[in-house]
Amino acid sequence: MPSYFVTGTDTGAGKTYATCVLLHYARAQGLTAAGIKAVAAGTDARGRNEDVEAIRAASCPALPDDLLNPYCFTPPIAPHIAAREAGTVIRFARIREALRQAERRADCVLVEGAGGFRIPLGPEGDSADLAVVLGCPVILVVGMRLGAINHALLTAEAIAARGLALAGWIANAIDPTMSRPEENFTTLETLIPAPCLGRIPHASSADPANAALQTTIFLATAPGGKRIHEGKDEAARSAPSCDIKRYE
Ligand SMILES: Nc1ncnc2c1ncn2[C@@H]1O[C@H](COP(=O)(O)OP(=O)(O)O)[C@@H](O)[C@H]1O
Ligand SMILES: [Mg+2]
């Protein structure tokens, strides 16, 4: 089961949310699943970053902090600027090492990038360069809203241009007021040169554990990949709720 690099059509597309949904899926399949937030920017008064905490909560086993989140910066700004201001260089080898160590602890490891696919990370390159160094197939989270088709197609092109495998894409219903969601979905299905791995509905509670039960996910199509979950599975469907403790 390969690891995956999770990218998105933009910041706010739902990368963290989809990562958490996928982690819950993998765990529901009896796998151990852990997420990594490679580079985070923006912390609260206690020095905690929202994405890191969401991924920690969805992971089992939870990784130690240095693997879970190799780089974290205080201000909620572009990471290459935050790194420069902190006098830090984001080293891709350190993130790759975190991934390798995580892979020894969990069956399934998902690495969430920062922002969109071409977000700069510093002297070693951008998020796309990081994905190349990590060498994982990519999952593209499409935040379903006006403008997403263009962002999705450009991102798919950028992934292919680097010789990376696009394992597939996920339609995340980020905007419940989006017009013509089905037509947009069909257009994306036709134009993205990779399968749709799942559709995540808009959830009023924004609880990824519950969303995991309403989503159909396939991770079968990446080279060497295998199906980790099928949301239409009867057992999953009939489960009264997705209690995180069930998977601990
Ligand atoms: N399917 C969804 N239903 C409801 N809220 C969502 C959904 N996907 C994302 N969100 C919310 O939208 C915001 C942005 O999502 P997030 O996963 O943080 O995006 P990204 O990681 O790409 O920046 C978060 O507040 C998240 O809880
Ligand atoms: Mg995020």
Record the SSE blueprint.
Elements: E1 4-8, H1 15-28, E2 33-37, E3 39-41, H2 50-58, H3 65-68, E4 71-73, H4 79-86, H5 92-105, E5 108-112, H6 127-134, E6 138-143, H7 148-161, E7 166-172, H8 181-191, E8 196-200, H9 208-211, H10 234-238
Parallel strand pairs: 1-5, 1-6, 2-5, 3-4, 6-7, 7-8
The chain binds adenosine-5'-diphosphate and magnesium ion.
Structure explained in plain terms:
The protein has 248 residues and is of the alpha/beta class. The chain has one domain (4-34, 91-240): P-loop containing nucleotide triphosphate hydrolases (Rossmann fold, 3-Layer(aba) Sandwich), CATH 3.40.50.300. It has ten helices and eight strands. The chain has helices at 15-28, 50-58, 65-68, 79-86, 92-105, 127-134, 148-161, 181-191, 208-211, 234-238; strands at 4-8, 33-37, 39-41, 71-73, 108-112, 138-143, 166-172, 196-200. The strands form two sheets. Strands 2-5-1-6-7-8 form a six-stranded parallel sheet, with helices on both faces. The chain has a two-stranded parallel ribbon with strand order 3-4. α7 (148-161) links the parallel β6 (138-143) and β7 (166-172). α1 runs parallel beside α2 (50-58). The chain is globular. It starts with a strand and ends in a 10-residue tail after the last helix. Mean pLDDT is 86; it is low at 220-248.
List keywords for this structure.
alpha/beta, Rossmann fold, two-stranded parallel sheet, disordered C terminus, binds adenosine-5'-diphosphate
Number of DSSP helices? 10
Small molecules in complex: adenosine-5'-diphosphate, magnesium ion
**Helix content class:** 25-40%
By CATH's scheme, which homologous superfamily applies?
P-loop containing nucleotide triphosphate hydrolases
Rg, rounded, reads 17 Å
CATH-defined fold name: Rossmann fold
Write the H/E string, N to C.
EHEEHHEHHEHEHEHEHH
**If strands are numbered along the chain, what order do they take across the biggest sheet?**
2-5-1-6-7-8
User: What is the number of strand segments?
Assistant: 8
User: pLDDT below 50 for ≥5 consecutive residues: which ranges?
Assistant: 220-248
CATH class: Alpha Beta
Major sheet, described briefly?
Answer: 6 strands, parallel
Mean pLDDT: 86
